[in-house]
Amino acid sequence: MTTGSFEAGWFEPDPALMPLSKLLPWTGRSLSRYHQRCAAAHGLTSTSMGVLGVLGHADAVSHRELAAHLGVTPATLTPVVDALEATGDLARVRDAADRRVVHLSLTVQGRGRLTAAFAQVATAFRERLPHPPPEHHEIIRGYLLAVLAAVAEEAPG
C-alpha cells in the first residue's frame, strides 16, 4: 500500500512491521555488517575476504576480472590488493604476453588464511542464522533471484 509518494511503513523502525521492500535491504545491510565483523576477527575486510575467496577458486585472475567478479571498480580494489600483497597473502605477476595485465594469485600463506577465515566465518553464520525448513528453500531462493533480476537493470531516473 502506498501513501502519497512513499510506501506505507517505509519509515517503520520495527522490522516485524516493515514492508518487504524495506525489510529485504535492511536484512542485507545487517548481514553485511555481521560478515564485516566476522571477517575483521581475522584481520580482513569483507572485500579482502572476497578477493581471497575468488582467488581460492580461480588462481591467476587479472585485477580487472577480479574487480568485475566482486562488483567493484579496479580502483576500489587496488588498496585491498595492495594490503593483501603487503601481508604476503597474494602475489602479483605481469602477463608475459601483455605487460599491462597483472594476474593475482594466492600465496601458500594466503590459502591458509582463507581456509581458516572462511571456516570460522561459515561456522559463525551457520550457528547464528536460522535454518528455514527444506521445503522453503526453493521459495526463498526463487524470491531472492527474482529480486536480483529486478534490480539488475539500471536504476530509473
Beta-strand residue fraction: 5-15%
**What is the H level of CATH, i.e. the homologous superfamily of the domain at 19-127?**
Winged helix-like DNA-binding domain superfamily/Winged helix DNA-binding domain
Distance between the termini: 22 Å
Helix content: 55-70%
Q: Which CATH class of the domain at 19-127 applies here?
A: Mainly Alpha
Contiguous low-pLDDT stretches (5 residues minimum) are none
What is the H/E string?
A: EEHHEHHEEHH
In total, the number of strands is 5
- The 3D shape can be described as globular
Radius of gyration: 19 Å
Spatially, the strands of the biggest sheet line up as 3-5-4
CATH topology of the domain at 19-127: Arc Repressor Mutant, subunit A
Structure description:
The strands form two sheets. The chain has a three-stranded antiparallel beta sheet. A two-stranded antiparallel sheet has the order 1-2. The two termini are 22 Å apart. 59% of the residues lie in helices and 10% in strands. It has a domain of 109 residues: Winged helix-like DNA-binding domain superfamily/Winged helix DNA-binding domain (Arc Repressor Mutant, subunit A, Orthogonal Bundle). The chain has 157 residues and is mostly helical. The protein is globular. Helix 3 crosses helix 4. The protein contains six helices and five strands, in the order E-E-H-H-E-H-H-E-E-H-H.
How is this structure best summarized?
With 157 residues, this protein is mainly α. Helices cover 59% and strands 10% of the residues.
Give the helix/strand layout.
Blueprint: E1 2-3, E2 6-7, H1 20-40, H2 46-57, E3 61-62, H3 63-70, H4 74-86, E4 90-94, E5 102-106, H5 108-128, H6 134-151
Antiparallel strand pairs: 1-2, 3-5, 4-5
Helix pairs in contact: 2-5, 3-4
